UniProtKB/TrEMBL annotation:
Keyword vocabulary terms for this entry: Membrane, Transmembrane, Transmembrane helix
Keyword Transmembrane part of the UniProt annotation: yes
Protein name per its UniProtKB record: Uncharacterized protein
Transmembrane segments: 6-28
């Protein structure tokens, strides 16, 4: 009859093993949440641009939400946007804003034009001209996901009421900041994050140039 071998662990090994088990139990949700976040990154990556956006169409900025004209300048300055309609923050009236400045620069340079009011014509909205695309600012949590959210902008085709592009960042906080030393952040974002039309590459991605 064969004798059973009994493996005896030293006390330090048992202590280390117990500590690792406790750590794994304490941080299980954090680790699980991180890997779920990585899965979302892969899934949402395919939803960046669902359909190409048609150039030279009329847009509306944050439909129904009062907005300062300066917030609309960058979008209006895009070479591919005809004009942008917005609800004015002060008088709650609709206006159309059109870029009339120098030859439209690459998107990477538009930020420098956002403070030049003379580059934009603002007039009462011509409601006979229908807007085709809606620009929507978003900041939302993913339901049933641990400390995972999305922020940025979505482009919606108003003819179908469907999202055609997500210019968003998906973020995951590894730890609850309320339980960290000095409210230390522990944020992670997907490596493909595209939050604005601020580069030629992103313009090509969205408009298909």
């Amino acid at each position: 009859m064969k004798k059973l071998k009994v493996i005896l662990f030293s006390k330090p090994v048992l202590i280390i093993g117990a500590c690792l088990l406790v750590v794994a139990i304490i941080f299980f949700d954090n680790i699980k949440g991180y890997y779920r976040f990585k899965e979302l990154c892969e899934t949402e990556k395919t939803k960046q641009v669902i359909n190409k956006v048609e150039p030279n169409m009329a847009w509306i900025y944050n439909e129904g939400i009062p907005t300062a004209p300066s917030s609309v300048f960058k979008l209006a300055a895009s070479p591919h946007v005809k004009f942008v309609r917005f609800l004015d923050y002060d008088d709650k009236q609709l206006y159309d804003i059109t870029y009339i400045g120098p030859e439209k620069p690459p998107r990477s340079e538009v930020i420098g034009y956002s403070h030049h009011k003379e580059f934009y014509a603002i007039k009462s909205a011509d409601l006979t001209q229908k807007t085709v695309y809606a620009w929507k600012n978003i900041n939302e949590e993913f339901p049933n996901e641990l400390r995972t959210g999305r922020s940025g902008n979505q482009i919606i085709d108003m003819r179908t009421n469907k999202i055609v592009a997500n210019l968003t960042v998906i973020g995951y906080s590894l730890f609850d900041r309320n339980h960290t030393l000095l409210d230390a952040p522990s944020g992670n974002t997907c490596d493909w994050a595209t939050t604005y039309l601020g580069s030629d590459a992103n313009v090509n991605l969205i408009f298909g140039e």
